[in-house]
Amino acid sequence: MIERLKQWTLGRQSRPALLMRAMLGITEAGDGELTRQLAASLSAAPVGPGLAAQAWRLIELMDVGPAPRDRVEGLLTLLHSFPAPNLPLVMPTGAVIADPVSAALAGEALALRALTKARRHRDRAVRDRLDALARRGPDMEGVTRRASALHGLAADAVHHPLAVARLTAEIARAQHADGKWTDIDPFHVGQALLSVEGADAERALRRGARALAKEQREDGGFGSEERSWIACRWALRAAAIL
């Protein structure tokens, strides 16, 4: 799986491919310039409405450069107003969330992850939401909601180790022997598990890697740039566990 992913990255001029090449130890002439071009194009490109879209754009920009202050402040303002997402909500992973409560949670969690990555987790508004998510997250119904909560909390896990551990354990417990989850987008769950460490996460990722391998396309990718980037991290993590 990893060798085919390496081939998939070659010559691709995208943020996921750039990140994958760096992780896989592949050097391509022009990747430095590509990083600068991506930062400029992402800054100029339009962004869809809602927390999830705004949060993801901030994460994309931080992948190729420093966090733009105006984007961070804009996301903080949007988090405070907390607009209802348009349904169905299509996440960057490709997961489609039709339930309004699950969609609202997914957007909030992604915004909290972006703001934590931007080092704004000490802001009172962000801190309060992270604390609230940690209190309610482990008792949420369904793997999709728990995965969203886990992804939102993971970058701040040092403050919420018990909540993160419980969420990870519940997600791992819901996994089937074949590595899948019932009616759940595996990339949404995999992204969350990749953001944490520990025995439960390692076991779930190892099991899930077997099912993941069956999703690989003939070109070596997984149907989209973001899903291929998740698959790359997943495959490397599973290989390190074995």
Q: Beta-strand percentage?
A: under 5%
Mean pLDDT across all residues, rounded?
Answer: 95
How big is the Rg? 17 Å
Q: What's the CATH first level?
A: Mainly Alpha
Tell me the total number of β-strands.
2
Major sheet: size, sense and barrel closure? 2 strands, antiparallel
Q: Any idea how many domains?
A: 1
What is the correct CATH architecture? Alpha/alpha barrel
Side-by-side strand order of the widest sheet: 1-2
Helix content: 55-70%
* Uncertain residue segments: none
The backbone outline, from C-alpha atoms, is globular
| Helical run tally | 12
CATH fold descriptor:
Glycosyltransferase
Structural class: mainly alpha
Through-space gap between termini: 14 Å
The helix/strand series, from N terminus to C terminus, equals HHHHHEEHHHHHHH
